[in-house]
Structure to design on (93 residues):
C-alpha cells in the first residue's frame, strides 16, 4: 500500500502516551490501525442503521436471544478445547 505523509493535530498528552508505549518508529502504524478500526466501526454503525431502517430496531428479546446463542457457542468451543488429544493425555498423566 502506498503511503503519504499528512499533518494531523493530536492532544499532546495522548500523542506522548502512545509514543512512549509503542516507540517513535511504530507511532504511524499505531495511528493507522486506530483509524482503520474507527472506519470499521463507522461502517458497522451504518449497516446497523440501514438494517434497523429496514427491519426495525433490535429488541431486548433479540439481544437476549443473541447473548444466549453466544454463550452456547463459547461453551461448545470450551468443550472442544477441553477434549483435544493433548488435554486428554495430560489428564491421564
Amino acid at each position: 500500500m502506498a503511503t503519504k505523509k499528512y499533518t494531523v493535530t493530536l492532544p499532546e498528552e495522548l500523542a506522548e502516551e502512545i509514543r512512549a508505549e509503542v516507540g517513535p518508529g511504530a507511532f504511524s502504524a499505531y495511528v493507522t490501525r486506530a483509524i482503520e478500526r474507527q472506519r470499521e466501526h463507522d461502517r458497522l454503525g451504518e449497516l446497523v442503521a440501514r438494517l434497523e431502517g429496514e427491519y426495525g430496531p433490535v429488541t431486548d428479546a433479540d439481544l437476549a436471544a443473541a447473548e444466549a446463542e453466544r454463550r452456547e457457542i463459547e461453551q461448545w468451543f470450551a468443550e472442544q478445547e477441553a477434549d483435544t488429544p493433548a488435554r486428554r493425555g495430560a489428564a491421564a498423566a
About this structure: Residues 10-81 form one domain. DSSP finds four helices and no strands in the chain. The two ends are 51 Å apart (CA to CA).
